[in-house]
C-alpha cells in the first residue's frame, strides 16, 4: 500500500471522481493539500531551480485511487507558480519497488490546485499512467 505523510482519512464525498464509460474503471483523488519540498519527488523538484526567483511557488499533492478497487495508485504532485500563471505536475507511484513519476510538464494554469491536478490527470491518463 502506498503511504504518504500527508495522507489522512477524508470522506469520499470530498474526493473528485472522474467519470468514464464504465463506472467500475477510472481514477479519483483527494483534494490537493500542501506538501513540503522535502516530500516532493526529485523529478518535480528538478523543474524548480530555474524558477527559484519566484518565492510564491506552492507545492501541492493529491492521493489518487483506482475506482474499481478503491486502492491507492499514486499521487499527483503539483508546483503552482501564481506569479506566472503556470504549474508543473507529475504523477508519482511505486512500480516494482521504485518510486517513479511521469515526465514533469509545465502548463498554463491559474493559482488553482484542483484544476492543476485535473490537468495533470488528463495528461497522465493520455500517456497511460492512470485509467
* N-end to C-end Cα span: 18 Å
**Molecular shape:** globular
What do the pLDDT scores average to?
83
| DSSP summary, beta strand count | 8
SSE pattern: EEEHEEEEEH
Tally the structural domains. 1
Give a topology summary.
Blueprint: E1 16-17, E2 27-29, E3 33-34, H1 42-45, E4 58-66, E5 72-81, E6 86-95, E7 98-101, E8 105-108, H2 113-126
Antiparallel strand pairs: 1-2, 2-4, 3-4, 4-5, 5-6, 6-7, 6-8
Overview of the molecule:
By secondary structure, the chain is an alpha+beta fold. It has one domain. Helices cover 14% and strands 34% of the residues. It is built from 2 helices and 8 strands, in the order βββαβββββα. Strands 1, 2, 3, 4, 5, 6, 7 and 8 form an 8-stranded antiparallel sheet that branches. It starts with 15 loop residues before the first strand and ends in a 5-residue tail after the last helix. 30% of the residues are buried.
Amino acid at each position: 500500500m502506498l503511504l504518504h505523510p500527508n495522507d489522512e482519512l477524508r470522506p469520499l464525498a470530498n474526493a473528485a471522481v472522474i467519470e468514464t464509460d464504465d463506472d467500475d474503471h477510472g481514477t479519483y483523488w483527494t483534494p490537493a493539500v500542501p506538501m513540503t519540498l522535502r516530500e516532493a519527488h526529485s523529478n518535480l523538484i528538478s523543474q524548480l531551480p530555474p524558477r527559484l526567483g519566484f518565492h510564491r511557488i506552492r507545492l501541492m499533492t493529491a492521493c489518487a485511487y483506482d475506482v474499481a478497487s478503491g486502492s491507492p495508485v499514486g499521487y499527483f504532485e503539483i508546483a503552482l507558480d501564481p506569479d506566472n500563471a503556470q504549474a508543473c505536475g507529475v504523477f508519482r507511484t511505486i512500480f516494482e519497488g521504485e518510486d517513479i513519476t511521469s515526465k514533469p510538464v509545465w502548463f498554463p494554469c491559474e493559482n488553482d490546485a484542483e484544476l492543476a491536478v485535473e490537468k495533470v490527470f488528463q495528461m497522465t491518463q493520455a500517456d497511460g499512467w492512470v485509467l
